[in-house]
Amino acid sequence: MIIGISMMVPGVSGGTMAIVLGIYDKLVHSVASIFKDLKSNLLFLVQVGIGGLAGVLVFSRLMEGAMTSYPHIMRYLIMGVIIGGLPLLYRKASTENESNTAMQGDGVSTQKSNTTVQQGKTGIQRSTGGASDYIFLVLGAAIVLLMSREPESLIYMATDGSLTSYIFLLISGFIIAVGVVLPGISWSFMLLVLGMYEITLNAINTFNIPFLIPLGIGIALGTFSTAKAIERFLQKYPRKTYMLIIGFVAGSLLEVYPGIPQGWQLPVSAAAFIIGFAAIFILGKKG
């Protein structure tokens, strides 16, 4: 349920929350390898899915009302959450890369025992990554900025009720699935970038089935289709993958930023930013 609630807040990734709760690796593996141990994997996914759905249904109406009534305050809260999650992602990138390079160092040391220490040191030094890793960070930010162009036209495509609309919702669901699988990118943030956040919240609250079914099918297909590839990419290129994710998250700040609030909303927005940052930063430290 915590993951479901987190998914309703743009910038709060269900994947990141799964890392904090210690179930992310099992979650991705269960999706990617569901047929290898169908009973166990399916039971785990159903449990997480029911809790996540409950969180979405319970929290969606509250989020819709808050975003409508206090848009500046909520967006500053979201910005705090986004920035607060960056240290966790960077730490995850460094830790995963260090583990991989240390394993490579161990493999070499078994062949040449007299270079074990040297290889181990080399592995740790490489954990800081190279300049190419930061190219992925810039690439991630650029992708988000390109995706955020002309959201009004996307809203029209999602709601005109034509066959094109259903196809668009199916494709959008496939894209949004990235936010379901990857830590650091929330599906609600993907909706925000596509200009579909408010209308999707409204569709959930009003049970707009013609809207939700194609979107849900796209999310399901995208999740199962990309989980295995993402799992392999995270294992093989962990630092580059996480730098790309950090770029996605950092780029989202420009999309979320609402401008400088006026009057009483200024101190309240600042407080909301601090609360959002502190909450995710503390959860990340515990995770």
List keywords for this structure.
287 residues; mainly alpha; 14 helices; 83% helix
Task: Walk me through the structure.
This protein is mainly alpha-helical and 287 residues long. It has one domain (2-286). The protein has 14 helices and no strands. Helix 5 runs parallel beside helix 14 (265-286). The relative contact order is 0.18.
Briefly say what this structure is:
With 287 residues, the chain is an all-alpha fold. The chain has helices at 2-7, 14-21, 24-32, 38-69, 71-111, 116-126, 131-147, 151-159, 163-181, 187-193, 197-205, 209-236, 238-256, 265-286.
Bulk shape: globular
Any idea how many domains? 1
What separation lies between the terminal Cα atoms? Answer: 17 Å
Largest sheet: none
Measured on Cα atoms, how large is the radius of gyration?
20 Å
Total strand segments: 0
Structural class: mainly alpha
Unreliably modeled segments:
107-127
Mean pLDDT: 73
Percent helix range: over 70%
Give the SSE order as H and E letters.
Answer: HHHHHHHHHHHHHH
Compute the number of helices.
14
Strand content: under 5%
Topology:
Layout: H1 2-7, H2 14-21, H3 24-32, H4 38-69, H5 71-111, H6 116-126, H7 131-147, H8 151-159, H9 163-181, H10 187-193, H11 197-205, H12 209-236, H13 238-256, H14 265-286
Helix pairs in contact: 3-12, 4-5, 4-11, 5-6, 5-13, 5-14, 7-13, 8-9, 9-10, 9-12, 12-13
